[in-house]
Amino acid sequence: MAIAKAERLMNLALCLLGTRRPLSKRELRGSIEAYLEAGGDDSFNRMFERDKDDLRELGLVIETVENLDGDVGYLARRDSNRLPPITLDAEEAAALGLAAKVWQQARLAGAASGALQKLRAAGLPEDVDPYEAHGALEPRIPVHEAAFEPLMLACRDRRPVVFDYRKASAARPEPRNVEPWALECWRGHWYLAGFDRDRGAERVFRLSRITGRVRSRGTGFTAPVPDVVTVRETVASWAGEIADRSALIRLRSGSGYPLRAKATKVRELGDGWDELEIPYGHGLDAWLVEFGPDVVVLEPAELRADVVDRLRAVAKG
Fold it and tell me: Residue 196: which H helix or E strand, with range?
């Protein structure tokens, strides 16, 4: 139904923008298929008035003109509905180009390209290429996860979703019932922030750990959406990026290079093991579990206990 209404509004807007003279209700009704199928006059009149109000709320300037015979007509003059001149500097154009690249592997690739063409027609300087990298390194935002597009649409439309999610410490995926808030790319990975209904709290999910299909739910949101959703800060906290302590671990030689990159101290122990001191923040236990038998936590005791508990949960399946 939402698609049918959007199509009807688009057709009405095109009729009003494409005419050089005011069109009466009768003429508009005969030009738009949805109005022909509306049934009686009362049904059509209610539908037309709602559509006209919706277009005006969206920003379309619709004039009501009465001719000498007293008939009322409607039109939307192009000069009244034209965008003002748009000027973008090199950095702003580069940001638009990077955003458009996100859609190159999604169904909206054509829409993104068309949007940039319209900006060009509205005044974007010809010597500024939104797709051109402005610097020695070209920024890229990969979109490989199948869950990206349905989650993006769910965030836009404020629709709850259900999907199967595999945690780093779990052997099997578990169903999650989520009210999606925002998507954000951080260090080459996409993350979803939202309200987890089953846990009654905000959660962040890495899209690469979503398995199967993302299913939409017709019910509305039950929790308020924050004015600012800090996806990166939340992910950094859960990933141990925000650390206020240090942990001491043993790491097998020739393994765990991400851990070595974070280490503040490294000492060779011999027998194929090294001792590392690394920053310790919330979520470090889940990260260490990913390295399996190549890591042994020495201290603090609570971190060692958390890692052991996670490994036992994986072993139990």
Answer: strand 189-196
